[in-house]
Write a structure and sequence with these properties.
The protein is an alpha+beta fold. It has one domain: Ferrous iron transport protein A (FeoA) (SH3 type barrels, Roll). It is 14% helix and 32% strand. A hairpin with a 6-residue loop joins strand 3 and strand 4. The longest helix has 9 residues. It is globular. It starts with 17 loop residues before the first strand and ends in a 7-residue tail after the last strand.
Length: 97
């Protein structure tokens, strides 16, 4: 499951990670971890945002508003702050011939 942010330690292991909120519209990523307390981690898990799951950023609200994401075929709206605490590994789309 998710782990809490380790104080004073690196949260990555040389993977190319970014916040879910930082993906471009239409871009996909695989959830790696969330940085937050037990309540946030549990809430994200209840919404289906668990490690290893692919998520797509559908739309970003203007002026720092919520982001719309698609998880397991379901559309969800997340506050920008919450989406900033979900770390993902961007998925590179394969070129189609």
């Amino acid at each position: 499951m998710f782990r809490r942010k380790p104080h004073g330690h690196s949260v990555g292991n040389n993977e190319e990670l970014c916040a879910l909120a930082d993906l471009a519209e239409g871009e996909k990523g695989v959830v790696v971890k969330a940085i937050g307390g037990f309540g946030l981690v549990r809430r994200l898990a209840e919404m289906g945002l668990t490690p290893g799951i692919e998520v797509k950023l559908v739309k970003k609200g203007s002026f720092g508003g919520p982001v719309e994401v698609e998880v397991r075929g379901v559309a969800l709206a997340l506050g920008r702050g919450v989406a900033s605490k979900v770390l993902v590994k961007p998925v590179k789309d394969e070129p189609h011939d």
